[in-house]
Design a protein that fits this description.
Helix content: 25-40%
CATH topology: YbaK protein
Distance between the termini: 36 Å
Number of strands: 8
Bound molecules: 5'-O-(N-(L-cysteinyl)-sulfamoyl)adenosine
CATH architecture: Alpha-Beta Complex
Radius of gyration: 14 Å
Strand content: 15-25%
Order of helices and strands: HEHEEHEHEEEHE
Shape: globular
C-alpha cells in the first residue's frame, strides 16, 4: 500500500465518495492488473475479483460493460442474446476513450460514456468482492448488492459453460 493515490485512483475514490457508501480505494505496491494478481495482492480468491470487461456493440457502437467473476470467462453469445446485439472485445483505445481508464484498471463505475452494464450472477452469491479502481495497482472492496446499486447493472448469466 502507498500513502497517496495516483490521479486515476484518486478519481475513482472521488466517484466512490460521491456514491457515499464509505468505500476506500487501496493502491498496492504490487500489480493488481490481472484477476489473479489482484487476488494475490488482496488475499482473496480469484472468483471474488469483479473484473470489468469492455465490449463494443457491433451495430450501435455503444460500450457494453460486463462485470464478471475473475474465475469465469464471458460468453459473448450469451451477452449478445441478452442485449439484442452482437458484441466484440473492445480494443485498448476504445476502452480508454469510452471509460476514461486504461485496461487493467477499469473500474465498474464512473466511465466517461455510461455503458450498458451486465453483472455476472455468480458474483451475487459472494459476501465480499473486490473491483479495480482506476490503475493496475488499485482496488476497492464492496458487496455484490453495492455493485448492483452503484452501477445500475443487470445481474445475468454471462459466463461460458
Ligand atoms: N485490475 C484487474 C483486476 S480487477 C483487472 O482490471 N482485471 S480485468 O480482467 O478486469 O482487466 C483486464 C482485462 O482487460 C483482461 O481480462 C482482458 O479482458 C482485457 N484486456 C487485456 N489486454 C487487452 C487488449 N490488448 N485488448 C483488449 N482487452 C484486453
Amino acid at each position: 500500500m502507498v500513502a497517496d493515490l495516483s490521479p486515476s485512483a484518486r478519481r475513482v475514490q472521488d466517484i466512490l465518495d460521491g456514491v457515499g457508501l464509505g468505500h476506500t480505494v487501496i493502491e498496492h505496491a504490487r500489480s493488481t492488473r490481472t484477476s489473479q494478481e489482484a487476488a494475490d495482492a488482496v488475499g482473496c480468491t480469484v472468483g471474488q475479483i469483479a473484473k470489468s470487461l469492455i465490449f463494443r456493440a457491433r451495430t450501435s457502437g455503444a460500450p457494453v460493460l460486463v462485470i464478471a467473476s475473475g474465475a469465469n470467462r464471458v460468453d459473448e453469445k450469451a451477452v449478445a442474446a441478452l442485449i439484442g446485439e452482437t458484441i466484440e472485445r473492445a480494443d485498448p483505445e476504445f476502452v480508454r476513450t469510452r471509460t476514461g481508464f486504461a485496461i487493467g484498471g477499469v473500474p465498474p463505475l464512473g466511465h466517461t460514456e455510461p455503458p450498458l452494464v451486465l453483472i455476472d450472477e455468480d458474483l451475487l452469491a459472494l459476501d465480499t468482492i473486490w473491483a479495480a479502481a482506476g490503475t493496475p495497482n488499485a482496488v476497492f472492496r464492496l458487496t455484490p448488492d453495492q455493485l448492483v446499486s452503484m452501477t445500475g447493472g443487470r445481474p445475468a448469466a454471462v459466463k461460458k459453460a
